[in-house]
Amino acid sequence: MREEAEIIRQEYLRHDKKFPHVWCPGCGIGIVMGALLRAIHNLGLSKDEVVLASGIGCSGRMPTYVDFNTLHTTHGRSLTFATGVKLAKPELNVISVMGDGDATAIGGNHFIHAARRNLDITAIIINNSTYGMTGGQYSPTTPYGSKSTTSVYGHVEHAFSIAELAVTAGASFVGRGTVYHASHLDKLIGQAIQKRGFSVVEVISNCHVQHGRRNKLGGAVEMMQSFKENAVTIGKAAKMSPDEMADKFTIGVLTDIDKPISTDEYRRIAQKAQRKADQVARTKVKNGVKRYEE
Amino acid sequence: MKSESTSRVLLQGNEAVVMGALAAGCRFFAGYPITPASEISELLSLRLPEVGGTFIQMEDEIASMGAVIGASLAGVKSMTATSGPGFSLMQENLGYACVAEVPCVIVNVMRGGPSTGLPTSPSQGDVQMARWGTHGDHPIIVLATSSVSDCFSITIRAFNLSEKYRVPVIILSDEVVAHTRESVALPGPDEIRVVDRIAPSVPPEWYKPYGTNNRGVPDMAAMGSGYRHHVTGLIHDEKGFPTQNPKEIDQFQRRLHEKISKGFGEIQVIKSIMMEDAEVCVIAYGSVARSALRAIKEARNQGIKAGLLQLITLFPFPRKAVDSVLRQCRVAIVPEMNMGQICREVARVNQTGTRIVKHNRVDGQLITPEEILKYLVKV
Ligand SMILES: Cc1ncc(C[n+]2csc(CCOP(=O)(O)OP(=O)(O)O)c2C)c(N)n1
Ligand code: SF4
């Protein structure tokens, strides 16, 4: 365990980057980063072939620290940049890490369309129930009744369930984990990266500084304790009544299906179009017409 | 210029943009349908797969611009095309392309605005938006097309400049240029000069993705080429990492501007027509420049010493060329399909008190040669 941690530190962190990182002590984002690095390490991916994109927010800072092709984009738009990278170079492993606000508020449209489109991209969404970076305003996953800096009287709207949203939008693989269940998370992220098609991992994480403190949820340790207590595996949840599940949430793999991947489909169509065009061009060249595209 | 490989074809402006883009090496397009730019998407969806490129229709223009930047970072020449409402949505990521120095081309086929405005009428209402649309103090290159053959050559020029200077380049076309069919003479493939971004030649561990050199334009490594580095919209140091150091920030901001000002000679393109002995001149761009050309010819027939300064590059504003015609002429007429967006630039350059006459049309109709001629006769 220790040894693995050292290998990962040496191999995957950017030592020319001016540490320390921006995250608060105890923040769950670091655990997600660790899980992601372990998953990549265990899959034996080459660092040159990994692209880690992010949006804006505390979660968005993750790519800064890790030694891949890293892309810190604009708020909510990570998946759009990732789409361009993947289509231009399908051989790259493209991973996009986002916050809950990033992925489902400002980037909500991109998120559902990326899932529908089914490119071979992995999306990791760190759901800490708030806008961490901007000071704890309510996000699309802030629970009903919760206090935030923009819902001081208690939140009057209802929260998204990100993983369920991803399933409905058409993702090929959807999992949910927490920062407490770290080795489960390693596995989930590994599965998601390996999955061909659009895959999503929602990670329930703690922002004790902005969200926990305002809602009397305690510090990092207490919040993690609550993830331990409230997370129920999907199998177990199936046997529980709605009342029993009231304050709980499921973890595990929500969906894992195979359907045509648009990157592959596009290549197939392109090859066909190319063959046809080449034929036409050959006749044209015979007739003395030159082509621009060569 | 004409050679054996020159061919004559009947084309629409939007089609010529597509041909120019492919000739320049564009192999990625992301867009969202909008009148009067849709033909560019439609044609590229047909042509790109044929040449091993990729077309994608995104969920909106914000996403289109993001995908274009992503593809360019992966090493593929990329573009998008839109009109006013979509151009508004692109501004956020356009700024990202400026700060992360990502080459790409954005075609804005201008229609009447603001808002949904006049979808099928020509306009030049987005000129200052092209210059200043995204937030922050950024340099940008804006080119204007006035004819179908322009659409071809200016699109190639746009790609070349964007690759050379690592900047987004905006092409302003308009509804009339986009949809006019003309017979144009296209140069043969061997007459076209194509510029590609410069890849680093140092070993990866020495590579500074935002390092300074005498060109002011850092070498650019494609993702996946072994030069792992960080790209961010935050102001960054030479390694690409966010910085708060005032000295590094200042250096970065100034380099962004200086790389463009070093290239003024090449970037600022104008056409000077019958200007040698001109006493009155028209300063025009886009489809209005064509009416202006007819107008000065007619004025010459009537014995008026008229000339035309056509602006191909709108920004960086060709101050030198404008200054010199203002010094030469008594009067300069600036006709525009807006309320005077380039006229204000002309006025800023005017050091000699030359009389500047505005002519503005904002009713969705073209400015005719007769309208311009009237001014030439009057002054
Ligand atoms: C277009 C735009 N709007 C607003 C912001 C300000 N902003 C920065 S981070 C952020 C919220 C981040 O919250 P979330 O995505 O949940 O990530 P977290 O910080 O919690 O990891 C906002 C609103 C921005 N950078 N860009
Ligand atoms: S503000 Fe919240 S999400 Fe951001 S680093 Fe601190 S604990 Fe983590």
Number of domains of chain A: 2
The CATH superfamily of the largest domain in chain B is: Thiamin diphosphate (ThDP)-binding fold, Pyr/PP domains
Give the strand content of chain A: 15-25%
User: What shape does the CA trace of chain B take?
Assistant: globular
Give a short account of the largest sheet of chain A. 8 strands, mixed
Distance between the termini of chain A: 54 Å
Secondary-structure-based class of chain A equals alpha/beta
Can you tell me the CATH class of the largest domain in chain A? Answer: Alpha Beta
Give the integer mean of the pLDDT values of chain B: 96
Number of domains of chain B: 2
Order of helices and strands of chain B: EHEHEHEHEEHEHEHEEHHEEHEEHEHEH
Please name the CATH topology of the largest domain in chain A.
Rossmann fold
DSSP helix count of chain B? Answer: 13
Q: Helix proportion of residues of chain B, in percent?
A: 25-40%
What does this structure look like?
The complex is a heterodimer of chains A (294) and B (379). By secondary structure, chain A is α/β, with parallel strands linked by helices. Chain A has 2 domains: 2-259, Thiamin diphosphate (ThDP)-binding fold, Pyr/PP domains (Rossmann fold), CATH 3.40.50; 261-294. Chain A has 11 helices and 8 strands. Chain A has helices spanning 2-12, 29-43, 78-88, 100-106, 108-117, 162-169, 182-194, 208-212, 220-230, 234-237, 262-286, and strands spanning 50-54, 69-72, 93-99, 121-127, 173-178, 199-204, 231-233, 249-256. Chain A has an 8-stranded mixed β-sheet with strand order 2-1-3-4-6-5-8-7, sandwiched between helices. The longest helix of chain A has 25 residues, at 262-286. Chain B folds into 2 domains: 4-191, Thiamin diphosphate (ThDP)-binding fold, Pyr/PP domains (Rossmann fold, 3-Layer(aba) Sandwich), CATH 3.40.50.970; 271-378, 3-Layer(aba) Sandwich (Rossmann fold), CATH 3.40.50.920. Chain B has helices at residues 13-24, 38-50, 61-73, 84-99, 127-132, 148-165, 175-179, 246-261, 264-267, 287-301, 319-328, 343-349, 369-378, and strands spanning 7-12, 28-31, 54-57, 78-82, 104-112, 118-122, 141-144, 168-174, 181-186, 230-232, 270-273, 280-284, 306-311, 313-315, 331-336, 355-360. Chain B contains 13 helices and 16 strands. In chain B, strand 2, helix 2 and strand 3 form a beta-alpha-beta unit. The two termini of chain B are 37 Å apart. In chain B, helix 1 runs parallel beside helix 2 (38-50), helix 3 (61-73) runs parallel beside helix 4 (84-99) and helix 10 crosses helix 13 (369-378). Helix content of chain B is 38%, strand content 22%. In chain B, the strands form 3 sheets. In chain B, strands 2, 3, 4, 5, 6, 7, 8 and 14 form an 8-stranded mixed β-sheet that branches. In chain B, strands 11-13-12-15-16 form a 5-stranded mixed β-sheet, with helices on both faces. Chains A and B meet through strand 2, helix 3, helix 5 and helix 11 of A and helix 1, helix 2, helix 3, helix 4 and strand 10 of B. The structure holds thiamine diphosphate and iron/sulfur cluster. Residues 56-59, 75, 99-102, 126, 128, 130-134, 139, 207 of chain A line the site of thiamine diphosphate.
